[in-house]
Every structure is written in structure tokens, then in C-alpha cells.
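Incident log, structure service

09:12 report received: a user says their structure output differs between two submissions of the same chain.
09:20 pulled the input from the user's history:
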Amino acid sequence: MFNARLLIESIFATILVFAVLGLFSVFPYDIKFLNPIKILMKDFKYTDIYYSKLADKDKPMNSEIVMVNIGNLDRGGIAAAMYNLQLAEPAVIGVDIMFYQQKDSLSDMFLREELSKPNVVVTSVLHPDDDPPSLLVSNEYFGDLNYAYANLVSGDSLNSTIREIQPFFNEGKYYDEAFTSKILEMYDSSAFKDLQARGNETEIINYYGTYKQFMDYEAEQIIYGEFDPEAIKDKIVLIGYMGNYVGDASNLEDFKYTPLNHEVVGKSIPDMHGLTIHANILTMYMHRQYIDKMHVAQSFLLDFIVCYVHVVLFMFLFVKMHLWYHLWAKVIQFFTAVVLIYILFYFYEMHHYLINATLILITVLISVDVLYLYETLAVIVYKKFGIKSYFIHDH
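09:34 re-ran on a clean worker, output below:
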């Protein structure tokens, strides 16, 4: 049934599948039939389906993190909100706001006093490509604050999906910590040491949920005392912009794409503010709910093996049952996709283990048609060099 020639040639055909896929990925022109493949290869992960469609949307609220939305509040209002928050004795206050210029002198003075408190971490922007690397921070008037970079790992943070965080930046003599890492260090030193011990350059963000999974207040509520101090005491408080009001999706400022987006492919509207992303990252750190991922070499080997098995089946059907080839191939593809996705989701949800299967699904998808190219090449080789192929032998 599966003779040696079939098994050997399937190796060459599998290599051709990967070669064609590589060509598609770098093809410079916009061809419509290639667009779905390019989208999948560029900015799609099967975990997007998990978070968007399958993940539990009714998780209990994480009461250890409180988010405060500044909305359109001025600096005086921000300072007043921070002052009232400090009266409730939070463990850490993370300020995800940049203050580039001086404005009203009185407001700036009060704000500087609040930002300089020892339990306050202020966001900055890391420029890793500078020589040496540097931080873009708020105006020097506010002094030497407890800064930490808020960069999120993304090819283009305006259009790409935020899936990873770089907890630490360590290049040569330059070392700095991410916004969430520094907050974690001040809140839970044990969890911080566990994060350090992992030694990963980047961590996959295990999203806990939307803003609804966290306690939130409008800054005006804090100013007017319309909050429970016990909900703030010894907790992490994150202050930043979440729209004109919490839940506002009309203003796209600091709005990012995440795997929780309802549109899995071809996203059109961002779905999460940066402050909520930071809350998700901190939740992952605090609960030690890290995602481990398969090594690149292991992933490629798995991709090749799965593709090879399918090429063997498809090549056999191509030659022995050519009339029904496409029908049987589609049935096999569908069965493979269902079984594979089930296995991947199981490992991701139950074991927090990421197997990068995008390449597997794409190679299984295109291998059906690549065999036509392989047959053409086999005929050319036979006519020119007299070397028989599995296709030629059986015709």
C-alpha cells in the first residue's frame, strides 16, 4: 500500500510544501488568493480563537488590582485622586500616564508631590535601539521618579495584537524593569523572584479577562470619596486612561488589539486599553499562571512530521483515487483541524503550554495543491533524466 518510493518521495514533497510556503510569506505583491495565508502567517495565533470564543468570560473579579480611569481629568484632579488613594493605604500605585510638559504651576507642584511617593511607579517609554538604551520620561520638573518602561511587545503596537511582554531589559550594562515587573516587585517579592527565575526574554500574556474582571473607579469617584477604602488598602492601584468613562470604546487613545478581540482575523477595532493589559499581566504574575511554549526546533520538527504524514496520505490518494482526491483530502483536512485544535486547546487551557500550530494548519492546507506542482516537476525530471517517480511509475 505505502511502498518505499511513496514514503521517500513524500519527504521531497514535504520539503516542497515548506519551500512554497516560504515563497508565499515573502511574496512582495498583493495577490488576493494569497491574502488569507499572509494574514494567518503575519498576525494570527490559534490562541486568539481560544481567548475570543472559548475562554471563560465569567471569571471572578481579581480584587487585588484596582483600576482608576482619569478620563478627561486635568493634572490637579489627578493629584487630588492620588492624594485620596494614598489615604486608603494602597500597597502600590502604578501611574500609566506621561507628563511631557509643564502646565499649571500649582497643579504640577501637587502632582509632583504625589508622584514622588515611595510606593508610586510611573510609566516611561524604553528606546532599546539607542546607544546606549534610554528611557523617555516625564518632564524633568517632576524629578527623578520611580520610572519603569511600559513597552508592550508588538511589531506595530497600533495594528498588531499584543500577546507578549518583556519583563526585563538587560543589554550590556543597561538594566531596567517593565512597569508591571516593578509593581510586582513592590507588591509581592516572592512572585517577582519567581518571574526572574524563569529567565525568559519575553513572556506570553495569559489574559485573565476584560476590564470587567477588575475593580474600577472613575477618578472623580475617588476625589469625592465615593469608594470603599478597604477595597484599596494593601492593593495594587493602576491609574491611567480608559476612555471618557470606563467601558468607553469610542475613543481609541491607548487602545490596543488583544487576543480577546471578537474579530479573530482581519481585526478592525482595537478592544483593550493599555491599563487593562497591565492588569492582566500582573494577574498572570501574581497567580503564577505562566504560559510555557514549545521550543522552536521542537515546533518545526512537529510541523514537518505532521505535514509529512498528510503528504503521504494525499500522494497515495492523488495516484490511487485521483477522481475522489479532493473530496477525501478535504475530509482529512477537516478531521485533522478538529482533532489538532482540540489537542492544542487542551494543552493550552489545562497545562498552560503553547504549541505553535499555525504552520501545521497552513502546511496541511496547501499541501493538497502543492502535489500538483510536485507531479509537474516529477514529469519534467522523468522526461529529462529518466528518473521514475511514484506518479510516473503508476501511470
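09:41 both user submissions now match this output. Likely a transient worker issue. Closing.
09:42 reviewer note: The mean pLDDT is 89. The longest strand covers residues 62-69.
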